[in-house]
Amino acid sequence: MVVAFGDMEAMTAASFVLLTNLVHLVKLYCFIFQRTKVQNLINSINREEFKPKNSDDCNILLKDINRSKRITKSFWLMCFMVCLLFAIFPLLDKSQSEGIRLPLGGWYPFNTNESPVFQIVYVYQILATYVNGIRNISIDTFISGVIMVISGQLSLLNNEFQTINAKQQDFGHNQVEIRKLLLRNVLHYKSIITFTDDVTTLFSTCLISQFVVSVVIICMTMFQLSLVPVLSLQFLSMAMYQACMLLEIFLWCYYGNEVILKSTNLTMSAYRCGWVEFSKEFKQDLLFFMTRTQFPLKLYAGGYFTLSLDTFMAILKSSWSYFAMLNTVHSKEIV
């Protein structure tokens, strides 16, 4: 960045990789120095309230688990493709008159144009990019996975309330047992709230750093895409990289939005439980529960950004605004 200062094209080419690595370091810091809390969070998923209670619950959770596996595999494949394209692009690029160049620009305290230094640095950049990409994917899919746990548990809770009326026959219309079922669901909801608070506290720094940096990275990547031919390997590699960046924040925002929607639906699910036939105590408890569910669960990044599709769109709008400004300035410099 310092060496390329003043050259807008070179600065933007270096900045998106630099910022990606910086936010990656923030994520590593959160996981390494809070590994005990992360392990406790993983262990808390096995709490009694979160365990499936029937075949319907198992099917709901299995659907989320399979979806998580597909997302992780797709994300890993995209990362591999980006690294592969970054590796082979310099070898096939015919536009470089000075010969084969390194996949990523950078400053080194030695001459990288000589052999075998060039080959060593070339391999180092590819391996480092791949390793960092895999670690990034592992962290990002883990965070989206724990958010998916919250979403899945809310699905279970919605299903539990919707089937209370059907379960009263199993209890022989015993109002005491039916009320115990309601209280069990309330405890389940409290556990979900606690788990949500733990996730927000633990990963707030990761989320806010990724959101802020993503605005710049998406902007810089779009600017780089505007500089290269569309039908080129470099364009394809940059487009794949951009897709990874977008998917990275989209997963968090999408599942955060699902948490909001499903927690909002709890009020209606509770209302549809057939409460008319139940005892006065049940109705009072249900009313208190429905009052609490008027405030949907939300995950926050840094206590400011809400994990939702609205936030995702706001990031895209901000990135586009900065890109338009950057492109205008660059056009004036060319003229």
Automatic annotation (TrEMBL):
<dbReference type="GO" id="GO:0005886">
    <property type="term" value="C:plasma membrane"/>
</dbReference>
<keyword id="KW-0552">Olfaction</keyword>
<keyword id="KW-0716">Sensory transduction</keyword>
<dbReference type="InterPro" id="IPR004117">
    <property type="entry name" value="7tm6_olfct_rcpt"/>
</dbReference>
<dbReference type="GO" id="GO:0007165">
    <property type="term" value="P:signal transduction"/>
</dbReference>
<keyword id="KW-1003">Cell membrane</keyword>
<dbReference type="GO" id="GO:0005549">
    <property type="term" value="F:odorant binding"/>
</dbReference>
<feature type="transmembrane region" description="Helical">
    <location>
        <begin position="297"/>
        <end position="316"/>
    </location>
</feature>
<dbReference type="GO" id="GO:0004984">
    <property type="term" value="F:olfactory receptor activity"/>
</dbReference>
<dbReference type="Pfam" id="PF02949">
    <property type="entry name" value="7tm_6"/>
</dbReference>
<feature type="transmembrane region" description="Helical">
    <location>
        <begin position="235"/>
        <end position="255"/>
    </location>
</feature>
<keyword id="KW-1133">Transmembrane helix</keyword>
<keyword id="KW-0807">Transducer</keyword>
<feature type="transmembrane region" description="Helical">
    <location>
        <begin position="75"/>
        <end position="92"/>
    </location>
</feature>
<keyword id="KW-0472">Membrane</keyword>
<feature type="transmembrane region" description="Helical">
    <location>
        <begin position="199"/>
        <end position="223"/>
    </location>
</feature>
<keyword id="KW-0812">Transmembrane</keyword>
<protein>
    <recommendedName>
        <fullName>Odorant receptor</fullName>
    </recommendedName>
</protein>
<feature type="transmembrane region" description="Helical">
    <location>
        <begin position="12"/>
        <end position="32"/>
    </location>
</feature>
<keyword id="KW-0675">Receptor</keyword>
